Automatic annotation (TrEMBL):
The keyword Ligase applies. Its cofactor is pyridoxal 5'-phosphate. Gene3D superfamilies: Aspartate Aminotransferase, domain 1 (3.90.1150.10), Type I PLP-dependent aspartate aminotransferase-like (Major domain) (3.40.640.10). This is 2-amino-3-ketobutyrate CoA ligase. Keywords: Ligase, Transferase. InterPro entries: Aminotransferase_I/II_large, AON_synthase_class-II, PyrdxlP-dep_Trfase, PyrdxlP-dep_Trfase_major, PyrdxlP-dep_Trfase_small. It comes from Pedobacter paludis.
């Protein structure tokens, strides 16, 4: 494998190697990347999560503050005094752990209150808490999708949904492509017990939004159910921050909605919102829920963050002002930001080596972004992925815009479609 053009995927199962040989070979590659400053699995912790973060990345000039564009803590609620206080009060009252899985004695009042609050937030009757957003997606599909069922999934949905459907009947449709979805629905009509159409609200790599009105109408016309993960939309999209369901006013049309407490809600955890019968079924059928401990009392941090969505709408407005300013700045330089309509803003590069080079130039300039490449996106679609926070200031954003302005004089950043690298 040529390390210069390799991706993590190439090391999953190289021909003829044992598990330990694979690990050793992958370690060589990780060392290669680390020496070049290309590994984003860095030791953080010099300063807390925020619009800037101090890091000491070898080769980049010692400890210095970086403008942080890698966090999904969109409102920076993880640092909000009331959110921190809620967690500390809960720990004082309940301790640090819940001690058991929910079905054998780990389901506490604070879990139930949070589940009720999440359901109410989306004007629905029932919700269920899981320990991560990843688990919420995978556990839901692992429990619901059975042998005679089918999942039709947008090919850009998050890895956790793909994981949930992997061992069962599933087909993909081209990203947000309504004609292709209809083709899939027609092909499968009448052949399965249940058909689920699975989408994300906001897509995590392009930051674009599902055509949910058309998708829901079509799915329901063919007797299929809609499953939507709105991890990146909740708290950000919609006048009151209810996410993509609010944008389309489809609260009662999305059969199953999942989300996370780890992004806008500044904590850790996941949830599923659905009918009371379905939620009860999942609570007693989902192995990830039945045989795994529940969230710790500190999860009430997320409960406070949910309140803040309504109590501090100016945070959402500040985030949107940042999004508009930053996006138009990038576009005015001729950079390709794709179809984003959220706080996730990519700059498409479409060439792996150039993506690494640009990332390195950004680090030198004191900017921490994510170089995103296969398998997170297709091989031809490498990009610099950035996410904005409500607490980024104009000088932070100007620093990034100026850096791109400088970089583009040295590198042709956005490749033409015809020059995309395989
Ligand atoms: N869904 C989407 C769309 C995501 O981007 C992510 C994580 N980045 C998840 C789910 C998983 O959420 P969590 O980090 O809470 O496990």
């Amino acid at each position: 494998i040529d390390f210069n053009h390799a991706t993590f995927k190439d090391f999953e199962n190289p021909e003829g190697m044992s598990a330990y040989e694979r690990a050793a070979y992958f370690n060589e590659y990780l060392d290669f990347q680390q020496e070049r400053g290309q590994l984003n699995y860095r030791l953080m912790g010099l300063t807390p999560s925020g619009p800037t973060i101090d890091m000491d990345i070898p080769g980049y000039g010692g400890r210095k503050p970086y403008v942080c564009l890698v966090s999904n803590d969109y409102m920076n609620f993880s640092q909000h005094p009331l959110v921190k206080k809620a967690a500390m009060d809960a720990i004082r009252r309940w301790g640090t752990g819940s001690g058991a899985s929910p079905a054998i004695g780990g389901h506490y009042e604070y879990h139930q209150e949070l589940e009720d609050k999440i359901a109410r937030f989306f004007f629905r009757d029932a919700a269920m808490l899981l320990t991560t957003g990843y688990t919420a997606n995978s556990a839901t599909m692992l429990s619901l999708l059975q042998e005679k069922d089918l999942a039709i999934i947008d090919m850009a949905v998050h890895a956790s949904m793909h994981e949930g459907v992997r061992a069962k009947n599933s087909v993909t449709f081209m990203h947000n492509n309504i004609e292709h979805l209809e083709k899939r629905l027609k092909e499968s009509y009448g052949k399965f017990q249940t058909v689920f159409v699975i989408v994300d609200g906001v897509y995590s790599q392009d930051g674009d939004i599902a055509k949910l009105d058309q998708i829901a109408a079509l799915a329901h016309a063919y007797g299929a159910y809609v499953v939507m993960d709105d991890a990146h939309g909740t708290g950000v999209i919609g006048d009151t921050g209810r996410g993509v369901v609010e944008l389309y006013n489809l609260y009662d049309k999305i059969d199953i909605m999942t989300g996370t407490l780890s992004k806008t809600f500044g904590h850790l955890g996941g949830y599923v919102v659905a009918s009371p019968e379905l939620i009860r079924f999942l609570k007693f059928q989902s192995r990830q829920h039945l045989f795994s401990v529940t969230s710790s009392p500190a999860v009430v941090a997320a409960s406070k963050a949910i309140d803040l969505i309504d109590e501090e709408p100016d945070m959402r407005e500040a985030l949107w002002e940042n999004i508009r300013y930053f996006k138009s700045g990038l576009i005015s330089m001729g950079l390709d930001v794709g179809t984003t309509e959220s706080a996730i803003i990519p700059v498409k590069v479409r060439n792996l080596a150039k993506t690494h080079e640009i990332n390195s130039m950004l680090l030198h300039a004191g900017i921490y972004a994510t170089p995103s490449m296969y398998p997170a996106v297709s091989k031809k679609d490498s990009r610099i992925r950035m996410s904005l926070m409500a607490t980024h200031t104009r000088p932070h954003l100007d620093k990034v815009l100026n850096a791109f302005d400088d970089i583009r004089t040295k590198i042709d950043i956005s490749q033409k479609e015809s020059e995309r690298q395989e």
